[in-house]
Design brief:
six-stranded mixed β-sheet; binds 8-OXO-2'-deoxyguanosine-5'-triphosphate; 8-oxo-dGTP diphosphatase; magnesium; EC 3.6.1.55; MutT-like
């Protein structure tokens, strides 16, 4: 279950549900890969991770000293075996989960080279709106709303 406070999406009670209302922010780089046909890539969270099996946009946590773009480039190479072109910063959100407080830096990516490989046992799907796969990770759901708004503005 998710609810929106002024700036934060609180999921499953957030840190307060764990008795940890104040925590450091974990920075996360996330890629919205958009193909030439307008479809975008969703991947399922690998077994063993929190929210395993939930659909999300590929990405992961920044390592020390990395920029968002560097982290995204590394994560997509590690997880999917592709080398991305430019990462275009798009939107940022703050999500308060029981396991972590995360700031998601969503970037759009239109160019990459390499064949997709699911190196972490995840599944993938090229989706269009409205998406048919479920469950979608709560922190990824706002992206679907932004993509819907963009599509409506184009029509
Ligand atoms: N990749 C990704 N993460 C998301 C999305 N939405 C969302 O809330 N998150 C959250 C879930 C996690 O708390 C965090 C990403 O951390 P992660 O554990 O998947 O990252 P990682 O691959 O670096 O993990 P690890 O090295 O610790 O195994 O961001 C999304 O659309 N994509």
């Amino acid at each position: 279950m998710a609810r929106m406070t002024s700036e934060t999406l609180v999921v499953d009670g957030g840190g307060a549900a764990q008795g940890q209302p104040v925590r450091p922010v974990t920075e996360v780089a996330v890629g919205v890969l958009v193909g030439r046909d307008g479809r975008f890539l969703l991947t399922s969270r690998p077994p063993g991770k929190v929210y395993a099996g939930y659909w999300e946009f590929p990405g992961g946590k920044l390592e020390a000293g990395e920029t968002v773009e560097q982290a995204l480039r590394r994560e997509l190479q590690e997880e999917l075996g592709i080398s991305i072109g430019p990462a275009h910063p798009w939107r940022d959100t703050l999500v308060d989960y029981p396991h972590a407080l995360v700031r998601l830096h969503f970037c759009k990516v239109f160019d990459w080279v390499g064949e997709l490989q699911m190196r972490e046992g995840q599944q993938h799907i090229w989706e269009h709106l409205p998406v048919g796969c479920e469950p979608v990770l709560p922190g990824a759901i706002p992206v679907l709303a932004w993509l819907t708004e963009e599509a409506a503005a184009r029509d």
